[in-house]
Amino acid sequence: MNSIRTLQRRLTGLLMVSGLLSSALIQAQGSSGAALVEEENLADSLVGAMQQEELAWLAYLEEDWCFSTDTSLLNIRDFPLNQTPTLDTAEMQMRMALLDAQSPMELAWNPVVHSRIAFYASKRKNHLGKMLGRAPAYFPLFESTLDRFGLPLELKYLPVVESGLNPLAKSRAGARGLWQFMYATAKYHGLRIDSYIDERHDPVRSSEAACTYLAKLYGIYDDWYLALAAYNAGPGNVNRAIRRSGGKRNFWEIRFFLPRETRNYVPTFMAVVYLMEFSQEHNIYPDQVSPSFAFLDTVMVDEVLRFDQIAPLLDLEERRLAQLNPMYRMDIIPATVERFPLVLPQSEIPRFIAFQDSMRTIAPERTPDIVFVPEPITYHVKNGDVLGKIADHFGVSVRQLKEWNGLSSSMIRIGQKLKIHANPSKL
Predict the structure, then answer these.
(1) Alpha helices, DSSP H, located in 330-406
(2) What confidence tier does 8 reach under pLDDT thresholds 50, 70, 90?
(3) Which of 176, 178, 217, 381 is least buried, going by the fewest C-beta atoms within 10 A?
(4) Is beta strand 296-301 parallel, antiparallel or unpaired with respect to 340-345?
(5) Where are the domains of the chain?
């Protein structure tokens, strides 16, 4: 019940430090005492309303999930500390047969997978322990997204292989995020990348894009391991391997025609699935456990806000705020014509709601003037269209339409393509 006691301390502290918050707000805002009292009263009422309900909800989650890091409970075979148990091939085959029977993916044992399991079980035990510790922060999101797309839930282990469950991971080739999207692939699947935002780092948006891409690849190959190979190496490399193999359509038959990294990609994925499902049997336990995804919530921000404006009035450090919101590249929420999500612990939501106006008064001169330039769309001129009508529909000016499309007059023709930097609310 550590998280419950932590929440109780935070909520109690919020009610006790109103004087400190008042001083901070007076320094930051310079507003009237009446306004400050009103904000503090709002915070108190929000906290009071949510305290018992929130505690009950979090207690239910904790009791229902029963997530433990107590090695004395998890060590079901009384292994000595740091021992790497001997691999029993017959037991591994039996366990993988169980996994295979309950999954649409092929998870049966074979010698190649055995070698990857042996490597990870002996050389990567600490790494897998960290992955088990990070799992509560990401696996519920992955599972719900995969389920919505109708994809195998075992694919939740793919980001373990891709990024080590690190939303800020970056490969030498330039792939980023939990699902390791390259720039072009990310843009193609609708992820936003600009000076302030990189949605490859956002767990929610990148998971949506990854599921879309994986479903598309499976639709091409009708084989999950060919789809995973294409996810890693690109469809071009997989298609070339199929041709070089004489048209074979099975990963294990085309494996040696694939790039070297991709040959071990699927066996490594299968090894990770097996070892994380049967971690206790291999003396591997959660380490450095992350807060659960279930204990977080989201609020929408509709004006530009810096992390160093948010953190002083919340029970959070800027570093933790950045970890919860990795898609903001400069620790700034660039809300101009759009609203953007801010992820916070549930216990911090009432305080943010109460003090968000005052947050913007903290060193406002350091807040940049952000000019929003939307990604261009292509509009096909239809019968009856004129530039003024099109401009009104997309919330832009005729002058802008002419400038974006190099038009010297207002004459347009049916079927003509116009490039428009449209406001998202108008799409």
Answers:
(1) 349-359, 387-394, 398-405
(2) very low
(3) 381
(4) antiparallel
(5) 2-65+292-366, 74-282, 377-426
